[in-house]
Amino acid sequence: MRSPLSRRGFLAAGSGLAAATAFPALSGCASLDSSDADPGTLVVHTQLGTTAPGSPTYRALVKEFHAEHPGLRIRNLVNGDDLPQVYETSRLARKEPDVVMVNLYDKTLAWTELGATLDVKGYLDDWGLRERVLPAALEEWTDEEGRLRAFPYFAANWPVAFNTTLLERAGVGSVPTTGDQLIGAARRLRAKGIAPVTVGGNDWTGQKLLAQIIQTFLTPEEARKVYATGDFGGRGAREGIDYFVQLRDAGVFADKAQGLTSDTMTTQYNTEAAAIQSAMSSALAKVPERTAAHSEVGGWPLAPGAAHARPTIMRSYTLIGFWISPNGAKKISAVEKFLRFMYRPESVSRFITESGRDMALETDTVSKDFPLVAAAQRLGDEVGQVLLPDLYVPPTATQPLITATSTAFTRGTSAATVRSALESAYRTG
């Protein structure tokens, strides 16, 4: 799996153009200057700084870190979804931050392979932090050559939330666990003017739900192959696409789902305009108390002959990690202090209790104020698990797959057209 950036281009010394573009890319959050070469300043590039779940906790922890280490200052650069591109631009100019807090997805998959970030396995062991990390998280963050790309930190459960009050209002007596039950529930909900399953069919939330449904008839090994190669022609993948089309054309998804976004999805569920959503734990943490009080979490309903014995969820341990850059290696003592602080059990617990985050680290803390997050953490044998495809999709196919997702959620689009759109995403990316 290769980055769209070449090894030579990404790691070459920054040209005048790269140096000129690095700073505008960082405008609006912060910029790098000569003081950042000071060993007493640790520059952290993060998505936690605005409205992202966990941002208030992160800011509070940085303040505490400053109090404990008066000679060491954390300087945060804040970006949203554009963080990977901004980091790559700054790396080309050799002006990259010291630590990066971002998920393992799309372009970041190749960073360590290309030398844009360090293999941190030795640091994890030298600093005695390996036992703090869940084994599954270490496995997901380790590449095929045995390199540990980053220090794992945030994780995510991705169950299905059901508003039981809305289901009861429509005459649906229990949470659907089969496709036929889901179709029947959708008909009853629509008769009451309630949207059944809300989904961001025009963004990553729809992409993930589509991938989950396609995996209905795939084993994990088969799913890895499908999403690594883009070959959806096997029987299991074709049956999964057929199942998705059956559900879509039966009215299971909200109207015009192909144009909806993750924000629309969460708004519809949180305001009780829709009865069901497939949502990761950061979205579950935002469900208002009045809605959460009559919501249950479970798995996606299955079709007959499925490869899974129980309704499925997704889990991932790659939501946010601490990556160390080549510049960070020059300040490794400061990096060690910062990561030891963030890995403390009490620091980890604060993200759980204050922000409802799932963590990739060992902890006994439960999200008491975030009941749906806690309920998702407790899901066990009553659900099965499918792959989150992010680790296997080539970076060049990531965005084209979202375009293909919108095509898939358009009612009336044939299964053959959906398959063609998915496979084209791998050829045209």
UniProtKB/TrEMBL annotation:
InterPro entries in the cross-refs: Bact_solute-bd_prot1, SBP, TAT_signal
A Pfam family: SBP_bac_1
Gene3D superfamilies (alphabetical): Periplasmic binding protein-like II (3.40.190.10)
UniProt entry tagged with the keyword Magnesium: no
PROSITE patterns, sorted: PROKAR_LIPOPROTEIN, TAT
Signal peptide span: 1-27
Keywords: Signal
PANTHER family registered for this protein in UniProt: ABC TRANSPORTER SUBSTRATE-BINDING PROTEIN, ARABINOSE-BINDING PROTEIN-RELATED
Name by which UniProt lists this protein: ABC transporter substrate-binding protein
Organism: Streptomyces gougerotii
